[in-house]
Amino acid sequence: MPENNSMHQIETAAKEWLEKRGVKISDIADLVYVLQKKYHPNLTKEECEENVNRVMKKREVQNAVITGIQLDMLGEQRKLMEPLQTLIETDESLYGVDEILSFSIVNLYGSIGYTNYGYIDKIKPGVLARLNDKSTGECHTFLDDIVGAIAAAASSRLAHRAKDAE
């Protein structure tokens, strides 16, 4: 029983930390809608949000969220040692560890997650555009990829469930 309580605490913390960093579940659901509306003409935002919430229940996702946000915050506060400080602060394109962390989320629902992730990461719609805006002074090196990965996983979950329903 204590493990379930602990998992619930981590899920709650992950969602709260997302909110504190300016990302709502509905923002991620909007990304899912962008990814899936072409394939599901009757798709609703509520369905997208339900899939995001189901993905957020996964331990791998919760762990990635709290780890990535913590690293972003330390980078923002300039509390990391060099050269890591500069790599995270500038979101160095060849750093790649931010994407590696996000792959733990993307892969939850199979290889379609990688396609969804690559596409959403390239076009950066909605909340991803804001998270990638370097002029704000905020550091979202990990968070932008994590949010994109959650949207990709939720999209993949939605696609799998739709296929199963056929």
TrEMBL record:
User: One MF term in GO for this entry?
Assistant: phosphatidylglycerophosphatase activity
- Give all residue intervals belonging to the YutG/PgpA domain: 26-160
Q: Which GO terms describe its biological process?
A: lipid metabolic process
Q: Which InterPro entries match?
A: PgpA-like_sf, Put_PGPase, YutG/PgpA
Stored CDD domains: PgpA
Q: Output this protein's name.
A: Low temperature requirement C protein
